[in-house]
Amino acid sequence: MKKTLCLLAAAGGLSLSAAPAYAQFNKPEDAIHYRQSAMFIMGNQMGRINAQLKASSPNIQVIQSSAALAEVMSKLPFEAFVPGTETGGTPPTKAKPELFKDTDKVKNLAEKMQTEVAKLNVVAKGGDVAAIKAQFGDVGKSCKACHDDYRNKE
Predict the structure, then answer these.
(1) C-alpha–C-alpha distance, residues 3 and 152, integer Å
(2) In the chain, which residue ranges form alpha helices assigned H by DSSP?
(3) Exposure winner among 2, 22, 38, 137, fewest CB in 10 A?
């Protein structure tokens, strides 16, 4: 439980510092690493939820803590999709060049994903596994909608 609280506190601190993050990118690789890190943590939390939903007896506390952290992380990566970060990074970015051209569509897709992740967090707090599964599926669809068009598979 202490570990979860520490993670949530750290994520909260990240969300408070996210607004001026664009100015913090001294070089393109910094922006790429920032957004990859946020996506990695969000994906990790979604994986934890998925594992619990597949378990014979899901741990609701794990789902709740992961949903809360995923919601915070869902807001972070998009400010780091800045000009000059279309290529590069270690590991290399998977973002397709179209992502940087279709800004209105990408913004709408990001907002949809953030809304669905926020709903997941609310549903998780209720503890109804069937409702969590349904909302988890909606989150997955919102992620896929962007990844299908704007993420390289390799």
Answers:
(1) 34
(2) 2-17, 21-24, 28-54, 60-73, 103-126, 129-150
(3) 2
pLDDT digit string, tens, across residues 108-141 = 999 999 999 999 999 999 999 999 999 999 999 9
The domain tally of the chain equals 1
CATH number for the domain harbouring residue 91: 1.20.120.10
Q: Residue 94 and residue 99: Cα distance in Å, rounded?
A: 10
Over 60: is that where the pLDDT of 3 sits? no
Q: Give whole-number Cα distances, 134 to 68, 119, 138, in Å.
A: 17, 11, 7
Q: Within a 10 A sphere around the Cβ of 58, how many other Cβ atoms?
A: 17
d(CA 86, CA 81): 8
Region of residue 89 (left: phi > 0; alpha: psi -120 to 50; beta: else): left
Return phi, psi of residue 16, to 5°: -70, -30
Question: Which pair of tokens denotes residue 112?
Answer: 């949809």
Task: Give the angle 143-145-151 at the CA atoms, nearest 5°.
Answer: 80
Which has the closest alpha carbon to 139: 127, 122, 153? 122
Q: Could you tell me which residues come within 8 angstroms of residue 28 by beta carbon, excluding any fewer than 6 positions away?
A: 82, 84, 85, 88, 89
